[in-house]
């Protein structure tokens, strides 16, 4: 940035003969345009650049004051983002269709007014009354990119010459306004990118917290194994395994929150925490689900609900007791059999209404596992695409076939093989996929 | 996806059509909650819905909860076999009042 010279401040009219004056004006204008464009394009801070830019333009045009108005986010008002001159009007808000500035913005056309006080749209009387600053001549250039209106630059009171702005001033301000509009647009784009980056970072942190809530990998002979693969960064599915200490039971739960994204992830975290906490005090899966339901209904969640299966595996009897709240039916495959036993939901999902079930909670099912295995999964598995293209999904029959195909593998490899069937490198997952398998595990 | 709200007798009828998925369900939610602002019984006609996912159902649940809180009737009708199956599997048929036709629904409110 070079220092201001006397030449910059000299009004164009003060030059000698016409030819020399025109050439000088042109050269001065080009120098200012080049300088301002450079400055605008290098700007990282809109405020400083606007204030400095306004000061530079105002001085160059030999005017008294100037201001930069931008349309607010709602698109209703023009707000003074920066100003230069004897009166500070930064933050001043005027309705979009009011005043000479509003006219320039709405018409997307430069306004050159000889005596503002005679203009029917003039709205600066209050400022004059409050501060004694009198507005006489005004030059306003709109800031726009094509049809998109951003605001306007207003230059007030030409102090030199006859006190009126001329065509040279108009052209110069229009060129500078074009360059400023680009700079403002760039700046906003950068801000949006920074904001996006910040959100992405927060989402990554949330995803890390979510992952930390999932149980770690269990030993191959442990009775309960699970996997969770989010379709996006955060998941609306969850599973958890809690061992009674000291005890005979391993509690497990798997849930799916309706909807996706951050709000589903937050509700998922709440449901998972409630399960973990309540599984230590409530002995029945049906009553545990009723308690989670009552909790979720009490706080409300804009219609978002949770389908959930909760239960425990009794390590001595080899029996499982589960309750299903509106969830995809878990499938039990007895040892040596090819037919599954499905455990359908007998009551609706959690978080919809608190009077859905009675005091004894959600209906429970008892299953003697023997050497068979119980599979609990979300619809992210059944509705997953199985091809690189098209709408073919795994479906219910496909899920049953898949389980039969992998039944001979140890649990960790079995779950990995199931995931492999629906996870394609060339196609993102449609929905979060979560699978839980419960079986005797290890020698008896 | 469109939502048309009309008045039939003392009730309001919301006609949904097209796919109600994650992207479109916020508009459905808004329209149903606005319609419930009239405090009149609301019938949601799903005959034109080709697909509804869990976020779409969540919009219906929120409308159901709002209607229940303010004591107005909320009835679904003409649910497609596919959507009905999803609702039955999740036992949402125990939550929603579901009628076969619009006339049945209007008679029920």
Automatic annotation (TrEMBL), chain A:
Keyword Transmembrane: no
Domain of life: Bacteria
InterPro entries xref list: Bact_Sigma-Reg, GAF, GAF-like_dom_sf, PPM-type-like_dom_sf, PPM-type_phosphatase-like_dom
Domain (GAF): residue spans on this chain: 45-194
Bilayer-crossing regions: none
Keywords for the protein's UniProt record, in alphabetical order: Hydrolase
Domain PPM-type phosphatase positions: 219-440
GO molecular function, one term: phosphatase activity
Designated name of the protein: Sigma-B regulation protein RsbU (Phosphoserine phosphatase)
UniProt organism field: Caenispirillum bisanense
Automatic annotation (TrEMBL), chain B:
Residue stretches making up the STAS domain: 1-109
Coiled-coil parts of chain: none
Classification via InterPro entries: Anti-sigma_ant, STAS_dom, STAS_dom_sf
GO molecular function: anti-sigma factor antagonist activity
Gene3D superfamilies in the record: STAS domain
Family in the record: Belongs to the anti-sigma-factor antagonist family.
Protein name from the UniProt record: Anti-sigma factor antagonist
Source organism: Caenispirillum bisanense
